Protein 1
Amino acid sequence: MKQVQGIKGVRDVLPGESEAWRHILQKARDIFHTFGYSEIIIPVIEFTELFTRSIGETTDIVEKEMYTFDDRDGKKITLRPEGTASVVRAYIEHNLRETSPFSKLYYIGPMFRRERPQAGRYRQFYQIGAEVFGIGHSMIDAEVLSMLNLLFDSLNIKGVELQINSIGCPQCRPAFREALKGFFADKISELCENCQRRFESNPLRILDCKATHCHELAEKAPKTLDYLCSECLTHFKGLQDSLKTAGVPYVLNEGLVRGLDYYTRTTFEFVGTSLGAQNAVAAGGRYDNLVEELGGPATPAIGFSIGMERLVSLFDDSSMERPSAGIFIAALGEAAQEKAFSLLTQLHQQGIPAVMDHSGGSLKSQMRKADKLNAEHVLIIGEDELARGVVILRDMKNKTQEELPFSEIAQRLKGVRS
Ligand code: ATP
Ligand code: MG
């Protein structure tokens, strides 16, 4: 029969890799809780309008990457390309501002973008993200970055550099926009098709274009930092002071504008020096106007998201504690198997990892399976052991064995495993 293949750019995370995912997600959850964040579980589908209004009509995501379809009633639905828009929608819809003076929320889950699949770029990929609502002070920007820094440290991730910039606010951005238009005015014909369009509608986007020549031109373009108003400058200086206080290393990247329209002031990326072209492992920034733009009360906010696949590729899983393969119960004959099943149930009830091969087989073949599963101990029950009310406990590492009465098994196994 013809086989059905998975979709291009959509991966399976198999055992062997999924242990690293579990480890990383656990560390992330622990650190988020340390910093006072709660988990929010957001839907995978939203009305398309949520994304076009927040991410921006002239961004790569909205122009060409969204998975959008007509629902049966004709409404336009999109598979979420990112998490912030949904978190903001939920924050407004459930009036979270009333429940807590400031909200610190994190989310974990798949995102969907129809990009060209390549290393570090998938059509379904996972993000770990967090958002803080209600604090405009630059110190929280530093706290957020310090949290990310701590997460990378705790995962022993090397070669990641934090780059920061400020892209100003609605007060100072118009002047910058004009300066950019002035700079690109006589270079329009050199820009890619998308950027030619963006020159009028959204010239800041040109700075984030991935096309080689646009990128080269952008390097010589005016810099946002030279156009900041005094409030934005104070905020940016405050952020740097607090990063020093928190001991978080960073570098300035004046060209960093990010690919979504909602950002204001602080923008940042954690860049993996070994990651090649797709080098941002985490990215984010402040978005002080988005809550209001999506119909909520004026609320300052900041957030980030981490690309899980890129984080996993930087993570050295040899440093990770391997989950134990536990106990393998080898039973010979039907009656012994029934007894083995009852023992297995008892072990599970006590939280002791244990498996058995329910199809039985010779002792030799069962021992081979135990070996393959890397079991620490094997419990062997044959007809003779069953009749005498004992099992053989074999230590697979030391190759020693002993006999144990049924009644002592659980107690003894707890001992050898702790
Ligand atoms: P890039 O510049 O790499 O396209 P972006 O600006 O589109 O990134 P964000 O939308 O800010 O990225 O997403 C945050 C993080 O999610 C990125 O830094 C990256 O680690 C990860 N990411 C984004 N798109 C993909 C993808 N298609 N596949 C895998 N990871 C991705
Ligand atoms: Mg992108």
Protein 2
Amino acid sequence: MALLIDIKHPDWMTDDELRDALLEYEPQADIRIGAEPGNLDDIEMLTVSSYFPGEALKYPNLKVIQKTGAGVNNILADADLPEAVRVVRLRTDTSGNEMAEYALAYVLQEQRHIPQYRQQQAQSSWQAYPPRKAAESTVLVLGLGRIGKLVAERFVANGFRVCGWSRSRKQLDDIECYAGNDELPRALAAADYVISVLPSTPQTRSMFARELFGAFNPGSIFINVGRGDLVDETDLVAALDDGLLAGAVLDVMSVEPLPESSPLWLHPAVQLTPHVSGYHLGDAIADIAENYRRLRNNQALLNPVDRELGY
Ligand code: NDP
């Protein structure tokens, strides 16, 4: 039984780097890399960061696809993904904490008017604005899973009023929890910052469209670190232009890299980053090695994805 690593993002991590890290945990493992897969019949586990439609069909004996992150939408969207192939993901507090830090960084710069001061400096303008108070600012975190909970807790620790929204109802200390589509507009209306940490599923795709932007507080900032295809980007630009919300911070886009022609690049109310809010895997690498071991021993795998729910 062989594990094939085919990450496809050498700027982030090379296949060799991950193989070396996995061999630390499983020195006897048969681990191949994308450039030298050997006999494709041997491959029973595939580890990817990006996944192309039909990729699973290259390996006749494939049993498991292990994603090197949390979002598995591209894998599940593959119409040719065999039913028998299980999909597993990673759960890591390392990148979750990085995403919390990212969201906090963008919120704090708004609270302290840093973008305005940058602009004023260029005009030698000396004008003061009172800092916004955390205790009087409401942060709404959409998605209260492994990462969303870390994000929400980071804002609680920094003195913000924090609300959260998820599919099933949660009870979390110091976080006002909303659940289900019916409760979303009420949660949005009260929020100064809306942070999406939602997965891309048939239920969430394109949910941020004209109608939902109409429920936003007009002074609010939308921060998307979940998945880009949740947002209708044409509607977002129109909503910003019409003053339905005040700004957007986007780490994820519907097409990545974002095409040069996208109006998002030059929109004055949009701040973009190239899908970097959660970056490092940390000790979650051990879970990939553990899943290889479990697959070999016919045991239940860590972090299975529910193909029906899509996450
Ligand atoms: P989890 O699976 O742990 O949590 C997902 C959360 O979303 C759950 O709270 C779930 O609700 C909620 N949810 C799902 N569908 C709906 C819906 N239809 N309505 C309301 N809530 C819904 O995922 P993680 O927290 O680990 O990761 C979240 C996402 O973050 C990933 O799917 C990935 O796309 C993205 N990500 C982005 C990164 C980046 O660098 N930008 C890095 C890592 C992840 P419930 O609790 O009720 O099931």
